[in-house]
Amino acid sequence: MKRVVITGQGAISALGSSAAANMEGMREGRLGISSLEFQDVERLSIAIGGQIKGYDPEAHFSRQEITLYDKFTQFALLAAQEAMDHSGLELTEELSAQAGVVLGTAGGGLQTQDENYRSVYEAGKNRVHPFVVPRLMNNAAASHVSMTHNLQGPAFTVATACASSNHAMGQAYALVRSGMSKVMLTGGSESMLCFGGIKAWEGLRVMSKDGCRPFSVNRNGMVQGEGAAIFVFEEYEHACARGAAILAEVIGFAMTSDASDIVMPNKHGAKRAMTGALQDAGISGDAVGYINAHGTGTTANDRTECAAVREVFGAHADELMISSTKSMHGHLIGGTGAVELLACIMAVRDGIVPPTISYEGIDPDCDLDVVPNVSRETKVDVAISNAFAFGGLNAVLAIRAV
């Protein structure tokens, strides 16, 4: 099996328009959640989110490109370009055939769907733009990233709700580790902050009207965000041969299904996913210093996740740091695991563990060290990132310092 390392990263979210800006926002414990601004927002009962304010597509893309790119594709392309630039990777024709892209998303081109449903049903138009289907399809972002960077190897999209990015990165890890690919761009992208997107989520009654407070005794729901994060996963020997700067090593991955309920989490599925990632990495639970939690801020998720952590790590659970950066950037649904991997990289590379902000008191069912409100400087050798999705789909990734 090949060793797999991360040699490039790019991101855009409510915390900033680059990976470095996102990490700085996490270190500072900055709140990226604010009032939503889009058409018909006054008709919603949920009016907050991790929205990227001041975003102008024309600052990044030509008008012709914008006709082809839904916002989730635009975010993916921006993050992918940053990741490629950061990695310093130059793709020869031979390497292009061994390089690919796997991205995660849940909503895909939801902005395009929302705009065109409005056009047909509300405005009464009988025609839509001929590129509606290429804009809204879930694989649009992966396809455009592959075309932009001439990635001729495996290219596909994973859609597993809130676990999409972790599932995608897990597949990219497997492709490089197996030797099928030398390089994979991977991560996720999401842009569901529009009237139709939020209105649908309102029906689930899991959204907070006033803020995301994971693990806090007074938490009352999740808050959505938008954006993307993309990474360059590369074969270790290939990275070393070209003198690449290595951010971290991917050492384990596991995925499980609760097979129990479409919306309620199950600690046994989460437990098996975390245990599987540790086994795949060949490490004991005591080696883990930080967990980036799924930590949505809903009563059921946070309680279930903490119970699963205690069962997996035993007495070591009291020594672990576990935080949810969703408190800062919101829940990017299919893109969230990718943004959260930045937090894990920051922990193992820089020794900075991001906080769970907006924390206001201990819930006895969530009595772990949730790094409340202020980031922490400390050595972390291994970090894991949890993603637990509706449908009972779980994906856990483990990384370590190099």
Description:
This protein has 2 domains: 238 residues, Thiolase/Chalcone synthase (Peroxisomal Thiolase, Chain A, domain 1, 3-Layer(aba) Sandwich), CATH 3.40.47; 149 residues, Peroxisomal Thiolase, Chain A, domain 1 (3-Layer(aba) Sandwich). The chain has 402 residues and is an alpha/beta fold. Helix 3 runs parallel beside helix 7. It has 14 helices and 14 strands.
| The CATH H-level homologous superfamily of the largest domain | Thiolase/Chalcone synthase
CATH-defined topology of the largest domain: Peroxisomal Thiolase, Chain A, domain 1
Unreliable residue runs: none
H/E order of the elements? Answer: EHEEHHHEHHHEHEHEHEHEHEHHEEEE
Helical run tally: 14
CATH architecture of the largest domain: 3-Layer(aba) Sandwich
What oligomeric state do these chains adopt? single chain
- The separation of the N and C termini measures 18 Å
Radius of gyration: 20 Å
> What structural category characterises the helix and strand content?
alpha/beta
- How much helical structure, as a percent, in the residues? 25-40%
> β content, as a range?
15-25%
